[in-house]
Design goal:
Mean pLDDT: 96
Number of helices: 18
Low-confidence stretches: 1-6
Structural class: alpha+beta
Shape: globular
CATH class of one domain: Alpha Beta
CATH superfamily of one domain: Aldehyde oxidase/xanthine dehydrogenase, molybdopterin binding domain
Distance between the termini: 34 Å
Helix content: 10-25%
CATH topology of one domain: Aldehyde Oxidoreductase, domain 4
CATH architecture of one domain: 2-Layer Sandwich
Radius of gyration: 27 Å
Bound molecules: dioxothiomolybdenum(VI) ion
Strand content: 25-35%
Strand order of the largest sheet: 3-5-1-14-11-12-13
Oligomer: single chain
Length: 759
Amino acid sequence: MDAAAPRPKENQGEPLPRVDARLKVTGQAHYPADLPAASIAYGALATSSIARGKVTKLRLDDARAVPGVLDIVTYGDMDKIDKPKFGNSSATSIGPLHDRTIFHDGQIIALAVAETFEAAEEAAQLIRAEYEEDKPTASFDSPGTKTVAAAGKSPMFKEDVKAGDFDAAFAAAAVKIDQRYSTPTQHHNPIELFSTTAYWQGDQLVVHEPSQNVTGWKVELARQLKMDPANVRIVSPFIGGAFGSKGPMTPRTAIVAVAAKRLGRPVRCVTSRMQAFGTQTYRAETRHRIRIGAGKDGRITAFAHEGWEVTSRPDLYVVGGTSATGRMYGYGSVLTHVSLVQADRNTPGYMRSPPETPYVYALENAMDEMAVALGMDPVEFRRINEPKTEPIGKKPFSSRSLIQCYDQAAEAFGWARRDPKIGAMRDGEWLIGMGCATAIYPTAVAPCAARVRLTVDGDVRLQCGSHEIGTGVRTVAGQMASERLGVAIDKISVEMGDSSLPPAPVSGGSISTASVCSAVLKACDAIRTKLFAAATAEGGPLAGSHNEEFDLADGKIVAKSGASAKVENVLKAMQVGAIEEYAEFAPKGATPEALKKLYAGTPEFHGGEQDEDSVKYAFGAEFVEVRINRYTREIRVPRIVGAFAAGRIMNTRTARSQLMGGMIWGIGQALHEATEVDRRYARYVNRDLQDYLVPVNADIKDLQVILVPEIDHAVNPAGVKGLGELGNVGTAAAVASAVFHATGKRIRDLPIRIEQLLV
Ligand code: MOS
């Protein structure tokens, strides 16, 4: 592993270690379920053993008889509160205890509360349900699914993008492919389990729960409990694995809050890993049909991408990655269509690069097939189809460094040494394959607020209700303040993860660094303006310099002429102990209601495909070497190189760490990860980390990340494109292409496992 932090290049920030690293490695970072609370009671969930039907009877006697049991919350007990409303703040519209209907396997039927965790677990397991059972529909191809077009039906999907006349162009194309691809069900398995701890202080409700969206949850939980949002506080200072799984709130939160109210005690419920498969969100299985037509010169004239995604009966959750795949290359014509297939399953949800991971996997696997059909080098094929504008709205890209990424990654990887002939590269009993693929992720940004306070002692306190989901956002926000205020990073404290702080948008869609840093920048610049005005005022230490440019460094204001004044002395002259600024950042193109929506927990997203002036994406190129044993078909990935361009890099260490983690997850998607669904019962089978495979250290060998310098001022004031989700896009397609190169077998259904290479 290449973990050494390189020297910063232009537009690339210092590779500072994370400001919370010491807390994390010494166990002093307290996660939400670590909260020490006096008189805490423990909750355990009872869940349904059927996937479709009705609970006709619930017998609680045995559960109530367990010593230490305090309460059981079940049907009838939630009647005074409102059901969840499906959306970005709520994972599902199912109110599991509002209604005896069972929509999916593992649906919550009760919460047992007891003096100890063990008693609560025992009681939950002794709750006996009787059901009226219907035959459930598990997935694609099961009898009883309902298929609907996503566009116009799901509130999460605007339109099927189109350009030109695909049918005519495809019919006329000299070289074409028409193939189908699929990705499996995948479940979040964060090491930090899902948990809720709730307690009441009079009318005030405090919830400690790992969350990527404390403001959205505060508002949605208040709505469900019919409370004033000002009386609800969500606290989530550290999160152990988020990736979308802690983005929307699940129904458990309100149930635990109600239990705490009934008991007049704090209640904590930690969901077991097995229960989380049914009570949290997941990445649903997808299918794709891709048609590409090109001239003999390799120029694509026709591109069609049809996608199918599984969702639940009540909620039309969709990822719809065609808005990115339809704009990836300079296709002559584009046709896309996304369909939702409803089955008796829990509602899916966000999982790292939700649209791009499955849709770009299909596109990039198809691009490699097309390069083979054309007899063309796959990198050259992408180069030929590099567009001047995106094909749908004919807008320019705010910046697009894809070819630079390909060139730098190809060079570092040694792509020139690749023999394009299938199966030609060998090392003893190992067949060697090399493949590559494009990574793309939309660059979005949302309104965000931040409060910054600079004291006479030179300390800075930065407050922002964003979330440290492991990306290092505390560190990069601190770096932005350090740079603008000329204060060393160790003098800066950063508070996040609390809905009582200035609101930030959901930490999803790779928007946090851009949004938070833009707000911090605005607050710091307001402080700078005040300081400079005071310093240059009549009688001030820099009087007469007010027309000059200036900077803040090492606790001093330095004018261009060289004149300087200590910040400490300026504050003293102002007769204040500190300057504090509260900034509200709204991106270009924000509506007049944008800030109101931020406080309401429903922030507007800008950027990506939505702006008038340009489309905004981060890009990357990934190259993979696979080795496949001739006899056993064992598949190894000894080498992976990714080059990525994502605008300004706030911190090269945290950025590389995100991209590395993304590529490793991509290898897992290619070779390991899949939830097996028992089609008879619509039930997940491998519900633990023993059977749900993810890559371990032994699976990852040489991994290299290249940060390609890129400057883009159009994306946001910070110049930052998000990259938390970029790294795992395209990886699986690069692996599939490398497997084809080694073996001549094109695997179109993930994950790629030994058995697919045996026949
Ligand atoms: Mo991410 S899946 O947008 O948390």
